Amino acid sequence: MDLLKKTWGWTWDRSQKGQRWLEFKIKTTGKGKYGRILKMARKPSSDEYSKTLIITGIGIVLIGGMGFGIFLIWEYFPDFLSWALAL
Fold first, then answer.
1. Domain definitions of the chain by residue range
2. Which residues neighbour 29 within 8 Å (Cβ) at sequence distance 6 or greater?
3. Residue 61's pLDDT is what?
4. Which of 46, 53, 28, 47 has its CA nearest to residue 38?
5. Distance (Å, rounded) from C-alpha 18 to C-alpha 23?
6. % of the chain beyond a pLDDT of 90
7. Cα distance between residue 83 and residue 26, in whole Å
């Protein structure tokens, strides 16, 4: 046991120190600058969640579509322009 303690002692001490720090942070979370926000927070209703999900999905699709449109313009517009102007 002595050999194990000598070998892993520093690791044990660091892990205990980290554990105490984490417990302190969790215990004092409701009292700091985020305490009021956490007290006011609530679980969203299913209707609220579904509306948020739909709006977020529409935003993702629109931004992805715009990116794809820009890609198509950069990829194929120079060839189309040279074909149209017969260069």
1. 1-41, 44-87
2. 35, 38
3. 98
4. 28
5. 9
6. 31
7. 65
